[in-house]
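ok so i was messing around last nite and threw this chain in just to see what happens. nothing serious, just curious
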Amino acid sequence: MKKIYAVAAIFFMCIVLLSCSKQSINDEVSPRLTNIINATIAPNQSYHFTISDPGEVSIVKQAKHYKTSETALEAESGKMIYNYTPAQNFTGTEEIILTNKKAVPIVYGGCNGSHDNNQANISYSVAYTMLRININN
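result:
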């Protein structure tokens, strides 16, 4: 009977300790699903994509045949955009991948242990957007 109580006590302690564990402040939240944007433009024309709800935006896969391929803050609207202009007379398909990394507050709580209850820490959410730009006549 003492063994049953000992096993039950150990099981209970494991559950309590696991439920009060903290995630690292620098952990990233799982990446969100990739948005795939298909666009078609004529040779030597530009393509502009507005990035909704921007955080820290960067290009992780650059176009191969470009005159301009960059993220920028649009002067008139103040919105974050991606600008693409193909290389002179290029026809074909380009693939560009953008990331949008945003800080996400994570609130911990519910434990009566010695760590701070309901303390907000910052983690990061990363969203990927793939742009497939077809350049043809």
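not much to say yet. The chain is about 15% helix and 50% strand.
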